[in-house]
Design a protein that fits this description.
Elements (H helix, E strand, L loop, with lengths): L1 H11 L25 E9 L2 E8 L17 E8 L6 E7 L9 H7 L4 E4 L19 E3 L2 E4 L7 E7 L4 E5 L2 E8 L5 E3 L2 E2 L24 E4 L13 E5 L5 E5 L11 E5 L3 H8 L5 E8 L5 E2 L5 E7 L1 E4 L2 E2 L15 E7 L4 E6 L11 H10 L2 E6 L8 E3 L2 E2 L13 E7 L2
Parallel strand pairs: 12-13
Antiparallel strand pairs: 1-2, 2-3, 3-23, 4-27, 5-25, 5-27, 6-7, 6-19, 8-9, 8-19, 10-11, 10-17, 13-16, 14-15, 14-16, 17-18, 20-21, 20-24, 22-23, 22-24, 25-26
């Protein structure tokens, strides 16, 4: 039924053409020579949801010129969602679980989505067991499943399904566990992230003898039914937060209604004492950069990005000519226009048919599309856009990359 819905929406797209999208009247993209030919083709996928394909430049680039050419070409896909008109919601989603990766072309129909793009940065090849783990903030169905990092480059986007509003900021968080019976408290360092065993403690037979600082993490079955294994202490909790079992080693399987706490380093002693008796409550809070607390609820979604592109109509990209992250690559980014429309954009790259953009060029494109506020999402080989059951972007590699999560527009049922 979900696949049928996507197919029908795509088939109806051309028939629903009405008011021209914002991008139709936008100035030419500020990419390369101003004399380049630029074409645009817009399709209304549903009321308030428009896909615009932009091609700038005609002649393919030579492989050796991709990073330097001023002749392009560039292929840009712009998905516009007007929350005042569109009957549906933008939200975050992931595959089978948050630890594994999945292709956007699979996540979109599974969510009943009309359109989708890749979203957060994730561990990818840095973790063989948990490649889909978000590197930064991740909110799904209102639950903070991955905490924001302390990186100054991380900016995240929060989407409110109640009014379609999008907010972009550098968020912080605080998490702790409280034993309702004994009053013992413990700080959480991570959510759904394998804890690190301190160097010098990996050969200890009893993990509670480690005197070096370690990690404490709370693990949900939405992350993985198999918890990370290794040195440390683990306690499994039932739906009421009461301890089901605990062990002087990490790694077990948890049921859908259970969660787990793991600790390494000297935090193992505190966790062992705290879980000896009684039941535990988890307290997690998210804060904006000005210190205001974010209200978490089933209406909220959130994904992480790296670097703010624009703010209040001005570019915010720092000048870092030697940083490879700032060079030309495929790009995915999100933002809002001066009228409140949410825009999701992909730029194909690393190909003779589309060379990609530097981070500064990406910000320039965002401004040309009236994206007054925008952030850069995961790009490179992850860049993917799906619309009406079709992948409209072109992967930079030989095939579509499986990613950690996606942003999807789901029509109202």
């Amino acid at each position: 039924m979900r696949r049928l819905l996507v197919g029908l929406c795509g088939a109806l797209g051309l028939a629903l053409l009405s008011v021209p999208p914002v991008t139709a009247d936008a100035p030419y993209l500020p990419l390369g020579d101003p004399t380049l030919v630029e074409t645009r083709e817009s399709t209304v996928l549903a009321e308030g949801v428009t896909l615009t394909r932009i091609v700038r430049g005609r002649k393919h680039a030579r492989e050796k010129d991709i990073q330097t050419t001023t002749r392009g070409p560039w292929r840009v896909n712009v998905l516009e969602v007007d929350p005042a008109v569109a009957a549906g919601t933008l939200r975050s989603t992931y595959g089978y679980d948050l630890a594994r990766v999945e292709k956007v072309t699979a996540m979109a129909p599974a969510a009943g989505a009309l359109a989708a793009v890749n979203a957060s940065f994730f561990t990818f090849s840095a973790s063989k067991r948990y490649p889909g783990n978000p590197v930064g903030l991740g909110i799904y169905d209102g639950e903070l499943l991955s905490e924001p990092t302390a990186s100054g480059a991380e900016y995240s986007a929060l989407l409110d399904a109640r009014d379609g509003r999008i907010e972009m900021d550098r968020y912080t968080w605080r998490g702790r566990m409280l034993n309702r019976r004994t009053g013992l408290r413990m700080q959480l360092h991570h959510l759904n992230h394998p804890p690190v065993v301190p160097a010098g403690c990996r050969k200890l037979r009893k993990p509670t003898r480690c005197k070096r600082a370690g990690d404490t993490t709370h693990l949900s079955p939405r992350f993985s039914r198999a918890t990370p294994s290794g040195k440390g202490v683990e306690a499994v909790l039932n739906a009421k937060g009461c301890v089901v079992r605990r062990a002087m080693r990490r790694g077990t399987r948890i049921k859908p209604w259970q969660t787990a706490l793991q600790a390494t380093g000297r935090e193992t002693r505190r966790l062992w004492r705290m879980t000896r008796r009684g039941c535990l409550d988890r307290h997690v809070e998210l804060f904006e950069s000005d210190g205001d607390r974010v209200e978490l609820g089933p209406w909220l979604s959130g994904v992480n990005g790296r670097w703010r592109l624009t703010s209040r109509g001005a570019s915010m990209v720092p000048y870092r000519p030697r940083d490879p992250f700032f060079a030309r690559h495929p790009r995915t980014f999100i933002g809002r226009s001066s009228t409140g429309t949410v825009l999701l954009v992909t730029i194909d790259g690393r190909r003779p048919s589309s060379v990609g953009t530097t981070l500064q060029e990406t910000a320039d494109v965002a401004l040309a599309l009236d994206m007054r506020d925008s952030i850069n999402l995961d790009g490179g080989g992850s860049t993917t856009m799906v619309a009406a059951g079709e992948m409209v972007s072109t992967p930079s590699g030989s095939d579509e990359r499986a990613v950690g999560d996606a942003l999807v527009f789901v029509p109202a049922s």
